[in-house]
Amino acid sequence: MKLSHIIYKVKELHQGVEEFLAMGFDVEYGKEKNPYNAIIYFSEGPYLEILGSTGMPRTVKQILRIFGQGKFADRLDYWDNHPGGPCGLALENYKTNLDAELTILKKYNQSWFTMPSKRDDTKGRKLRFTCAFPNDIQLPFLMTYFNIDPKPKAFIHPNGAVNISSVSFGTKKEFIPLIKELCDDDRLKLFAGEGVGDIHYKYSGE
Asked: Which entry of 42, 65, 121, 189 is 20 to 30 Å from 152 by CA?
């Protein structure tokens, strides 16, 4: 697997988008009507998801808990209640399923919640993918890549940013071998700790 994206929480989505635009990034909302997130794509490598909220109603979270998926609901609550900044990390493969990756989670005695996901973006693309959310929030969540590639070709942001060159991620020491078995992306820098740390960008001319 490779790095998919970093979730960056903001208190209010539209204000957050304006702040990233002011920093010279090109930003598009996740969907046309009532968006809860926005995306900063790069031509290659991981992207940044600006998250105003998960868009998951409280009643749905309650239903998830009733049906034994409280850990997934906890992850959603963590994102919804985060004060701001990077708060989540996703890994992606380029298959139509996550069978191999779930086998690795099972090998390390980890449980998860799997769900199909979809999003119709602002350019009319019907994006479809599958996600798996480990019960332990100190593990990244997993996803198949979109059925349609939404990334721009040979694109450089107005501020000169070409891609995300590295991301540090803190986790339990015993999870580091698991994540390394899942992900061979040299952009990912693991350390014993908690949460997403530094995000570095590569700029044109570097």
From this structure: 189
